[in-house]
Design a protein that fits this description.
The protein has 221 residues and is an alpha/beta fold. 30% of the residues lie in helices and 20% in strands. A hairpin with a 2-residue loop joins strand 2 and strand 3. Helix 2 crosses helix 4 and helix 4 crosses helix 5. It binds cytidine-5'-triphosphate and magnesium ion. Cytidine-5'-triphosphate binds next to helix 2.
């Protein structure tokens, strides 16, 4: 299958990092680089990279294919703003909070999206999944029926733009792009993700990220 003609990488990096508690998360350092620097290095090959920054934060130095835009109050709004000026046939939306981008997963996404127009990486749940009831153990769900969804998420740019327009018109919000695309009635393909692409979210994730940074190679197995 031929690779897509052009790829725009959209990086929502405008969050406040409230759960991590270290200020805007994209600028938190792991292994001597900011989370955003990890992501920019991983996508240096892309035709363009567009990054949404928190309001009032000045753009850091970056390569010529990187553009910065002011983010919105919600992640979805940040992605909508990134999408407005994007020119690629395919867009890859990737959280700045996921510093470890596994190239094999990106390869799988690019192959899948070329055929289906929408593809996202998923990983299985390692733990038992329950619905707590007032702080006590509640019903256990069958974890084999569920998956955790990661980024990057890959779409034909026009499909994602239509999904965002519909969501805006209907006043719907979602925590990822695939939900918006699915709401169009457009099928979203799943490809195997990788647990190393975890989202740095809680304080203890920083210790995991530091440890992984020490053994990270450009093309990890
Ligand atoms: N994000 C964004 N614009 C927002 C909110 C979030 O671009 N208004 C981005 C974050 O920068 C992050 C990604 O969306 O790269 C995933 O969000 P999350 O992990 O929730 O990051 P934060 O919103 O920064 O963290 P928290 O929810 O703990 O405040
Ligand atoms: Mg958030």
């Amino acid at each position: 299958m031929p690779p897509p003609a052009t790829v725009s990488v959209l990086v929502p990096a405008a969050g406040q990092g409230t759960r991590l508690g270290r200020g805007p998360k994209a600028f938190v350092r792991v292994g001597g680089r900011t989370l955003l620097e990890w992501v920019l290095a991983a996508f240096a090959w892309a035709d363009e990279v567009r990054v949404a920054l928190p309001p009032g934060v000045s753009p850091p130095p970056a390569a010529a294919n990187v553009r910065f835009v002011p983010g919105g109050a919600e992640r979805q709004e940040s992605v909508a703003r990134l999408l407005e000026g994007a020119g690629g046939d395919v867009v890859l939306v990737h959280d700045a909070a996921r510093p470890f981008v596994v190239p094999a997963v990106v390869d799988r996404l690019l192959v899948a999206v070329a055929g289906s127009g929408a593809a996202v990486p998923v990983v299985p749940l390692p733990d038992t999944l329950i619905e707590p009831e007032e702080g006590r153990y509640g019903p256990a769900l069958d974890r084999s029926r569920y998956a955790l969804v990661q980024t990057p998420q890959a779409f034909f740019r026009e499909v994602l733009a239509e999904a965002h327009q519909l969501a805006r018109a209907e006043g719907r919000t979602a925590t990822d792009e695939a939900q918006l695309v699915q709401a169009l009635g457009y099928p979203v393909e799943l490809v195997p993700g990788d647990r190393r692409m975890f989202k740095v979210t809680f304080p203890e994730d920083l210790a995991l990220a530091e440890a992984l940074a020490r053994v990270w190679e450009e093309r990890p197995e």
